[in-house]
Automatic annotation (TrEMBL):
It comes from Streptomyces melanosporofaciens. SMART domains: PP2C_SIG. Transmembrane segments: none annotated. This is Histidine kinase-like ATPase domain-containing protein. CDD domains: HATPase_RsbW-like (cd16936). PANTHER family: STAGE II SPORULATION PROTEIN E, STAGE II SPORULATION PROTEIN E-RELATED. Residues 55-70, 152-162 have a biased composition (Low complexity).
Length: 651
C-alpha cells in the first residue's frame, strides 16, 4: 500500500517528515574514496579493525546472512507447548489460578475453566503434593523439582473435584504412571498502554497504520482482544490489567506465575523397579543357597555348649561367603570352624559351600588343625584361583582342657577366663586360603571349665571409618561382660556392636562355653587312666582296671562286659603293634562311654577282613562291631590314639 498520498491528510505531517530527516542524518555514511567520490573503497582499503595492519577475516563460503536466519519471534506459545509430549500447566498469582493447560494435560486430567484457583480446579496437583512446592517457587523465584510422582490408573482425572463451568473430565491413565515435575517461575507480560493525556489524533498519527501502532500494540478497546488473542493471560486477568493501565496511564507490572512441567518417566521407573526386583531375587537366591549350605542344626558336644548366628547384609548389600561349623570328632573332641570367602553373591556362597564340605571331610581324618588348613589351601586354589578365604580351625580336647587351633588370615579367637579376663588367641596366623606356598602352624590356648570363647567374621567388628582392631577391642569389652547361654551371648554381641538389618556386611558369630559342672552334673562326668608298663601282665591289669571302674560308675552289666572286651582288644593291639609309653583312659559323659588307648607308635590301625586261618587281625573288627563308633588319630607329641565309644542307655 502506498502511504504517500495520505500524508497531506494526516496532522503534523511536517513534524513527522522532520523527524525522519533527522534520523536519516544520524545514520553512518560509507567511507569516501581518496578522490572524494561516492564509490566504495576497495576491499584492501577498508579500515583495519584490529589496528595491526591485518586484513579482516574472510567470511566462510557456507555462512548464512544474518537476515536469512529464522527467528523465534513468530512462535505461538500455544503451538509450542501444545506439541510437547509432557504435562504443561501455567498458573498465575498467589492462588495459582489456571492460565493455560496443554493438550497432553487435558487428555490425562481433563479440561479446566481458566482463572480457577488450582486448589479447586486442579485437585491432582494437591494429590501429587505440588501446591506447597509451587508456593515456594513463587516466593523464591527459583525452580523446584520432585521426582517420580505416581499417577494411579484412572487417576485423579476421574475425580477432579468440584466441576467448574467449562471443565470436563479426562480419560485418565490405563495403568499407573510416574512423572517428574519441575515448577519454574515465569513472568507473563502485561499489555503496554499509552498515557491517556495524549490526544487520540496524536496516537493515531504517530507510529500507527490504520489506527494501529506499528509495533502491533492495539489502542483503546482493542488492547483486551489482542492480549487474549496472543494467549498472554486469561480474560479476567487481561481485563483487570487493561483497566489498571487505562486508569493510571502507566505500563503494568509483569504478572508472576509458575510453569508446571511434568515429564513422563514411567518407563524409567518401571525399568529401575524390574532391575531392583531382579537384584532382590538374586540376593534371596544367594541367601537361600548360603543358609542351605550352613548347618541347619549345630552338633552339640558332650562337654561344650555351642551356639552360632548368621546375619546377611542389608538389602543394598549382596550376600557374602561367611560360614561356620561344629564337628564332633569322637572321643569327646570337637572341631569348631569359621571362615569368610572373599567377594559377594552366589559365587561366594558356592565356594563357601565347597570349602565347608571339604573341612568336614578333612576333619573326619582327625588331622591336626594346621594340616587341615594346608589341605584347604590347595583345594581353594583349585576351586577358583582368583578367590581367597580366611578361616580358623580349632579343636577342643576335654582331656587337655585346651583349644588347639590354626588360622589362615582370620581374626583372632577371643577367650574369656572364668575371672572375666579376655585374651586374644592371635598367634600363629598364616595367609588366607588360596594363596599357596605357606606352611601353617598350630597354636593352643587354655579353655578349662568356666571359660568361653567366640569366633567371628570381620562383618562383626569392621567399620569403614575405623581400624578393624578398634572393633576387635570393642568386642573384647562387650564379651567381657556378656553372660547367659551361648545363644544369648551371640544376640548380645550382635546388638552391642550395632549390627542391624541394614548392616553393609554379613556377620557370622560362633560362641562356645565349657561349663563348670557341680553337684549332680559333676557325677555324670568322670575320667580314669592307667599307665601300661608292658609285659604279659599288662592285658590282665587293663581288664581288671576297666571292670572295676565301670562297676563304680554303675553301668549295666551288659555295657560293663562290652566295655571290658573293647578295652582288652585295644590294649592287646597296642601291646602287639605299639611302643611305650602306653596308657588306657576311660571317660564317661552324660551320653556316652569313651575308651581310649595311646602309645608311642604313629602307625594307625585299619580295619581289615581276617581270613579263617588267620590267628590275628580281628581285634579292630571286634571293636568296630560292638562299639557305636571307633577311630584313631596321631597325637601332637608323636604316637597315636585309638578309641571307641558306647552310647549310654537313656532313662
Amino acid at each position: 500500500m502506498n502511504f504517500t498520498r495520505w500524508s497531506a491528510r494526516l496532522p503534523r505531517t511536517q513534524r513527522r517528515n522532520a523527524a525522519r530527516a533527522d534520523r536519516g542524518a544520524r545514520r553512518p555514511k560509507p567511507a569516501a574514496t581518496a578522490g572524494g567520490g561516492s564509490v566504495p573503497a576497495a576491499r584492501g582499503e577498508h579500515a583495519d579493525p584490529s589496528g595491526r595492519g591485518e586484513p579482516p577475516a574472510a567470511a566462510p563460503s557456507d555462512a548464512v546472512p544474518p537476515d536469512a536466519v529464522p527467528t523465534l519471534d513468530g512462535l505461538s506459545v500455544h503451538d509450542l507447548l501444545g506439541q510437547v509430549p509432557a504435562l504443561v500447566a501455567v498458573v498465575y498469582g498467589p492462588e495459582h489460578r489456571i492460565a493455560y493447560l496443554n493438550d497432553t494435560y487435558v487428555e490425562l486430567f481433563g479440561s479446566r475453566a481458566p482463572g480457577t484457583p488450582a486448589r479447586q480446579g486442579l485437585p491432582e496437583l494437591t494429590e501429587l503434593g505440588l501446591l506447597p512446592l509451587m508456593d515456594q517457587v513463587l516466593r523464591s523465584g527459583k525452580p523446584r523439582t520432585v521426582k517420580s510422582r505416581q499417577v494411579p490408573a484412572g487417576g485423579p482425572a476421574t475425580t477432579p473435584g468440584p466441576r467448574q463451568e467449562g471443565s470436563a473430565p479426562g480419560p485418565g491413565r490405563s495403568r499407573h504412571g510416574y512423572y517428574t515435575f519441575t515448577c519454574s517461575p515465569i513472568e507473563m507480560a502485561a499489555p503496554r498502554v499509552l498515557a491517556p493525556a495524549q490526544p487520540a489524533d496524536e496516537r493515531v498519527g504517530e507510529g500507527t497504520v490504520d489506527g494501529s501502532p506499528v509495533d502491533g500494540t492495539p489502542v483503546d478497546g482493542s488492547i483486551r482482544e489482542a492480549v487474549l488473542r496472543k494467549g498472554v493471560m486469561p480474560e479476567a486477568l487481561a481485563t483487570e490489567a487493561v483497566a489498571t493501565a487505562t486508569a493510571t496511564g502507566t505500563v503494568t507490572e509483569p504478572v508472576r506465575g509458575v510453569l508446571v512441567f511434568g515429564a513422563d518417566v514411567t518407563d524409567q521407573v518401571e525399568s529401575a523397579e524390574r532391575l531392583r526386583a531382579g537384584e532382590r531375587l538374586q540376593r534371596e537366591a544367594a541367601v537361600t543357597l548360603q543358609r542351605s549350605l550352613l548347618p541347619q542344626e549345630l552338633e552339640q558336644p558332650d562337654d561344650l555348649r555351642v551356639a552360632a548366628t548368621y546375619q546377611p547384609g542389608g538389602t543394598d548389600a549382596a550376600v557374602g561367603g561367611d560360614w561356620y561349623d561344629v564337628i564332633t570328632l569322637g572321643a569327646g573332641r570337637t572341631a569348631l570352624v569359621i571362615g569368610d570367602v572373599m567377594g559377594r553373591g552366589v559365587r561366594a556362597a558356592a565356594v563357601m559351600g565347597q570349602l565347608r564340605t571339604a573341612v568336614r571331610a578333612y576333619a573326619r581324618l582327625d588331622l591336626p588343625p594346621h594340616e587341615v588348613l594346608q589341605l584347604l589351601d590347595g583345594l581353594a586354589a583349585e576351586i577358583d584361583p582368583h578367590q581367597i578365604a580366611t578361616c580358623v580351625y580349632a579343636v577342643h580336647d576335654p582331656n587337655e582342657n585346651r583349644l588347639v587351633y590354626a588360622s589362615a588370615g582370620h581374626l583372632p579367637i577371643l577367650v574369656r577366663d572364668p575371672d572375666g579376663t579376655v585374651r586374644r588367641a592371635s598367634e600363629p596366623t598364616g595367609p588366607p586360603l588360596g594363596t599357596g606356598g605357606w606352611l601353617h602352624t598350630t597354636g593352643s590356648v587354655p579353655l578349662g571349665p568356666g571359660a568361653c570363647a567366640v569366633l567371628y567374621t570381620d562383618g562383626l567388628v569392621e567399620r569403614r571409618d575405623k581400624d578393624i582392631y578398634d572393633g576387635v577391642a570393642a568386642l573384647e569389652r562387650v564379651f567381657a561382660g556378656a553372660t547367659g547361654s551361648p545363644q544369648v551371648m551371640c544376640d548380645r554381641l550382635i546388638r552391642a556392636l550395632g549390627i542391624t538389618a541394614e548392616h553393609d556386611d554379613d556377620v557370622a558369630v560362633l560362641v562356645l562355653q565349657h561349663p563348670a559342672r557341680t553337684g549332680h552334673d559333676a557325677e555324670l562326668f568322670h575320667n580314669a587312666a592307667l599307665e601300661l608298663l608292658g609285659g604279659v601282665e599288662a592285658a590282665p591289669r587293663a581288664r581288671a582296671f576297666a571292670s572295676g571302674v565301670l562297676a563304680s560308675w554303675r553301668f549295666p552289666m551288659e555295657l560293663r562286659d562290652l566295655g571290658v572286651l573293647a578295652a582288652s582288644e585295644l590294649v592287646a593291639n597296642s601291646l602287639q603293634h605299639g611302643t611305650p609309653p602306653m596308657r588306657l583312659r576311660l571317660r564317661r559323659t552324660d551320653r556316652r562311654l569313651i575308651i581310649e588307648v595311646t602309645d608311642g607308635d604313629e602307625h594307625l590301625p585299619r580295619r581289615r577282613r581276617a581270613e579263617p586261618v588267620d590267628e590275628a587281625g580281628r581285634g579292630i573288627s571286634i571293636v568296630a562291631t560292638i562299639a557305636s563308633s571307633w577311630g584313631s588319630r596321631r597325637t601332637p607329641g608323636g604316637g597315636k590314639a585309638v578309641w571307641c565309644e558306647f552310647a549310654l542307655p537313656t532313662g
